[in-house]
Each structure stands twice: as C-alpha cells, then as structure tokens.
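Quiz preparation item.
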C-alpha cells in the first residue's frame, strides 16, 4: 500500500484542478502529499514542501502533472531512489503519461491495491566536466550559432568507428527515439529494447546513418579539432558546453526508470496518436 505520494508540476502552468483531485484522494486515504518547495509555494496548496533531493526517497509514488517534459523531470528526480512514476496528462498528448486528469483517482486506487505493472525505462548518463548528468530522452551535442559545425568522432569500446559533421549529434535512449532523434530521421524504438541510438542531425558528412548500440558497449563522443564550440543539451536543457579535444563518455542504466502502467494503452497506440501514423499513406 502507498505510504505517501509526491507530486511534480509543470513549471509554468498552475493545475489547480489536478492538485485538488490528488489532495482529495490522498485525504480520503489518510496519505500525506509531498511537493517541491518552490512548486508548493507557487500554487499555495496543502502539500508538504520538501527539497528536491528528498522528494523521491520520502515518496512511495511520484505523480507527474503535465506533459512529457514534466514526466522526464520527475523521472530524473526519481532516479537514485528508483521511485515509480505515474504520468498524468495535463496538457498536450504525450508518450509517457498513462492517464488523463479525470482518471487520476481510479489510477491511484489501482496502484494502492497493487493492480499495475512497471515499464522499465533506460537512462543515459553523460559525464560533463567530471560530473554525471542523467537523461531519459537524449543528450545532444549541438552547434552554437555562429560557430562551426559539430565535428564528432564516435568511439565504441575504445575503437574509433565513424566521424560525423552535423548540426548536432544526438545520443538517445529508446524513450528518446520519438523525440530529437526522430526529428533527425531516426527509427522508432520499442522501450523494451536495451540499447542506445547515436544519430547526426542535419549531417554535412557522407556517412549520415544512425548507429544502434548495445547498452553494455562503452560509448565516447570525441569533439574533433575542426569542430566549433558545442552546447550539451540534456533532455532539451543546456547543461554545459564542450569544445575541440573534449571527450564525453556515456553510461546506460537499462532499468533506471519505473513508469507505472495500468494496461489501458500500449506504446504503439500512444505512438500512433502522437505521431499521426494513422494518417500516413496506405498501401493498396
């Protein structure tokens, strides 16, 4: 049974109805609701404010109220404690949310009686300036406007394989295959696959194909001397910069994320809706 519920909110929306729904359900089950200090203060609700580093460890379940961006941030908060995450759609339809707002009370009751499953989601850790930075979608090395293109050498298990010249080079988990990697022409990858995608975006080089690596293979991206200064985007947010001569090492944790599933939709149903696959040309 649940002992406490943590909540993470969209950074700019004020989902009063969603918070009220969650608090009412929790009150009926005599469970505390915990929230981030800055978010609880922003919406002035009855959730108990806690620090970001303590939220996951003190919660039996984290509830993400927002879109996929909020869900990814919640998964990063849950990373060390391995706390399960329930995604509640409070905006545009996403890939990661399991229920809409109106379904939240029933979903919480199902979880409380253990009527759910976990869907494992891989994380990728990039070591930037010696410090680990975790992503659940992707890490992208992106050219800085006004500087040169991204010149990147890909090394797998210490063996140089290919050099890319591109506007960006994206390292994506299967979860991130439907994000930046997809817009760069990459494949849709089942979240059950344990691997890592490397793909150039707007490539300037002759070799422009994506690579699919096993999660146990050691990946290093080396910034070439011909490269411009590059921004390192982690799940879409700039985490730092690298330049010629810098190496970025990556590590995959295949079971880092625990996304709650209630068996109401499948990955392929969500992908068809989000990517409008049903509107594609039909073969006769």
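Solution:
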């Amino acid at each position: 049974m649940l002992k406490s519920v943590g909540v993470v909110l969209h950074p700019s929306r004020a989902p009063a109805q969603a918070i009220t729904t969650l608090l009412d359900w929790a009150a009926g089950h005599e469970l505390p609701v915990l929230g981030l200090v800055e978010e609880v203060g922003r919406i002035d609700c009855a959730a108990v404010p806690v620090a970001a580093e303590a939220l996951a460890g003190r919660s039996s379940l984290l509830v993400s109220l927002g879109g996929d961006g909020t869900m990814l941030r919640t998964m990063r908060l849950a990373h060390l404690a391995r706390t399960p995450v329930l995604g509640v759609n409070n905006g545009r339809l996403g890939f990661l949310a399991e229920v809409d707002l109106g379904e939240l009370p029933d979903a919480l009751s199902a979880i409380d009686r253990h009527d759910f499953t976990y869907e494992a989601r891989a994380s990728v850790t990039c070591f930037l300036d010696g410090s680990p930075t975790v992503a659940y979608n992707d890490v992208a090395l992106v050219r800085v406007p006004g500087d040169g293109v991204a010149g990147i050498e890909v090394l797998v298990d210490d063996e140089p394989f290919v050099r890319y010249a591109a506007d960006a080079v994206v390292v994506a988990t299967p979860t991130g295959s439907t994000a930046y990697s997809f817009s760069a022409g990459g494949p849709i990858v089942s979240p059950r696959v344990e691997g890592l995608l490397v793909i150039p975006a707007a490539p300037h080089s002759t070799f422009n194909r994506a690579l699919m690596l096993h999660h146990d293979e050691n990946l290093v991206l080396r910034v070439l001397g011909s490269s411009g200064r590059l921004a390192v985007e982690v799940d879409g947010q700039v985490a730092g910069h690298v330049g010629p001569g810098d190496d970025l090492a990556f590590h995959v944790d295949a079971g880092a994320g625990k996304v709650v599933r209630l068996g109401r939709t499948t990955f392929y149903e969500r992908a068809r809706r989000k990517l409008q696959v049903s509107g594609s040309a039909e073969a006769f």
